[in-house]
Design a protein that fits this description.
518 residues; alpha/beta; 13-stranded mixed beta sheet; 20 helices; 13 strands; 33% helix; globular
């Protein structure tokens, strides 16, 4: 590396060195908090120790402890591991640190609160820096370490959320040195990242100004009692007490293996009595934000309905067939051939009686519902993602909040991670390499298949970048009269992008008044 390749920036904790590329400068693995080890393992994040000299920020920092993403899902979704204790780190891609007042996009990754990291290849912030946006991505604690409920811990719950808040405060304090404007921060997240953003919005901390929420829900939030049930099952597998003191002495790999086993049981064999109703409300998640009355005072949807986060403008999206990712990669689920075989999931997820038969009548040639797994995926997509997304938009419209714009991503992948050779379709997370404009990566094409439509990526990425830059969204905000939703790749046509008024309205109405999605 020549001296001309290196760019140095002064941060609040010390000087860092990044690398210059053709159209951006990148700084990777900058600590925003101290390593969560020892007495800090189950504590709120603390500032990193200042350093002297220049810290090289040339490679991704350590990722949070997490189990491997195995099975058929691991064949198509990448989840790199970078070893080391300093997992509370972030990355910055800037068009030019000599600039000032540039818009900022902060990415919070998904992964069901147990997997994922900022080192996933498709989350390459260079694509946003190329378009004039300072892009930040971050790691946060996961699973038991980030979301396990431990009443005897220094921070009993929501340590992962506290990590995200610490990273956002780091952005406020430091991003100007990278050319960004701390008054122009957009947060973006998908799945658990999107759910995290909605939880953060419900707190009204004022750390961001716009938000992109992809495949999220504000309806989840474990009670402490139910979170304790899940944690006890993990501790029982390890034959220790369900306390921070006991779990802090358990080998990390052993803890992750027990966590993974319990998470798999909750996904495949749901049981309200065993794991709690608020756990089952998350449709397969074991760990999630806990409504502890402190970090998360209320369930996010209830706070948003009362006006929390009302100054934040929202761009929210779902994919047409979200749940195909979770069902079609699980041999125990994709091989269920009748409604009765899904009864345990329907009951545990509080799906209204008659929903299966109602959805079996729907579908289309493009989005079929001929098989039991097709119907299950359609029902669970509505229960977990689409209807909760609409409920957020409806609630914000009622309190005259900043505009909420909705879209749906309908392009289908033919990649088939199952013995039945059934494609994942327009499933959960498929939109991400399009939104990030990273379709050319081999990692992305494991998911999309060969020759994905670049023009669709150009369109969706442009929508995200424009939103981060503060541009007006070019379609109407959601309202309860017309219910406009931008359909990207409508009906699987990668060139068809237009607004649909109240898509699948009769199925939307089916859920009206149902407690699980109220």
């Amino acid at each position: 590396m020549s001296e001309q390749d290196a760019v140095e920036i002064e941060t609040a904790s010390g000087r860092v060195s990044g690398l210059r590329a053709e159209d951006h400068v990148r700084f990777l693995g900058i600590p925003y908090a101290a390593a969560p080890v020892g007495e800090l393992r189950f504590a709120a994040p603390r500032p990193p120790a200042p350093w002297t000299g220049v810290r090289a920020a040339h490679a991704f920092g350590p990722t949070a402890p997490k189990p491997p993403l195995g099975g058929r899902l691991g064949e198509i979704v990448s989840d790199p591991d970078v070893e080391g204790p300093d997992c509370l780190n972030l990355n910055v891609w800037t068009p030019d640190p000599a600039e000032s007042g540039l818009p900022v996009l902060v990415w919070i990754h998904g992964g069901g609160f147990t997997t994922g990291s900022s080192a996933v290849p498709s989350y390459d912030g260079a694509t946003f820096a190329r378009d004039g946006v300072v892009c930040v991505s971050l790691n946060y604690r996961l699973g038991v370490y980030g979301f396990g409920y431990l009443p005897d811990a220094p921070a009993p719950a929501n340590r992962g959320l506290l990590d995200q808040i610490a990273a956002l405060r780091w952005v406020q304090d430091n991003i100007a040195a990278f050319g960004g404007d701390p008054g122009r921060v957009t947060v973006a997240g998908e799945s658990a990242g999107a759910m995290s953003i909605l939880a953060l919005m419900s707190r009204d901390d004022g750390l961001f100004h716009r938000a992109i929420v992809q495949s999220g829900t504000a309806h989840l939030g474990q009670t402490p009692q139910d979170a304790a049930k899940v944690l006890k099952h993990v501790a029982d597998e390890l034959k220790v007490e369900p306390t921070a003191r006991a779990l802090g002495g358990v080998d990390t790999d052993a803890l992750l293996a027990a966590q993974n086993l319990v998470s798999g049981n909750i996904s495949v064999s749901p049981n309200k009595a065993k794991y709690g109703e608020s756990t089952m409300a998350a449709c397969g998640l074991a760990f999630m934000p806990v409504v502890d009355g402190d970090v998360l005072p209320r369930r996010p949807i209830d706070a948003l309905a009362d006006g929390a986060g009302s100054t934040v403008e929202l761009l929210m999206g779902t994919t047409t067939e979200e749940f195909r990712l979770f069902v079609l990669t699980q041999p125990l689920l994709v091989n269920l051939d009748s409604k009765i075989m899904y009864n345990a999931h329907l009951a545990a997820y509080s799906v209204p009686s008659g929903t299966w038969d109602e959805y079996a009548k729907g579908g289309s040639a493009t989005y079929p519902r001929a098989k039991a797994y097709d119907v299950a995926c359609a029902v669970f997509t509505e229960r977990m993602f689409r209807i909760p997304t609409y409920r957020i938009a409806e609630a914000r419209a009622r309190v005259d909040a900043a505009p909420t714009h909705l879209y749906e991503f309908g392009w289908r992948s033919r990649v088939a991670p199952n013995d039945r050779q059934v494609g994942v379709g327009a499933c959960h997370s498929l939109d991400l390499p399009f939104a990030w404009d990273t379709l050319d990566l081999a990692d992305s094409q494991k998911f999309t298949g060969p020759n994905p439509p670049q023009a669709l990526a150009d369109t969706l990425h442009r929508a995200w970048a424009d939103f981060a830059q503060g541009a007006d969204v070019p379609w109407a905000a959601y309202d309860t009269d017309n219910r406009p939703v931008m359909a990207y790749a409508h009906d699987n046509d990668d060139t068809a992008h237009h607004v649909v008024q109240d898509p699948r309205g009769s199925e939307r109405k089916w859920w009206d008044g149902h407690p699980a999605t109220a």
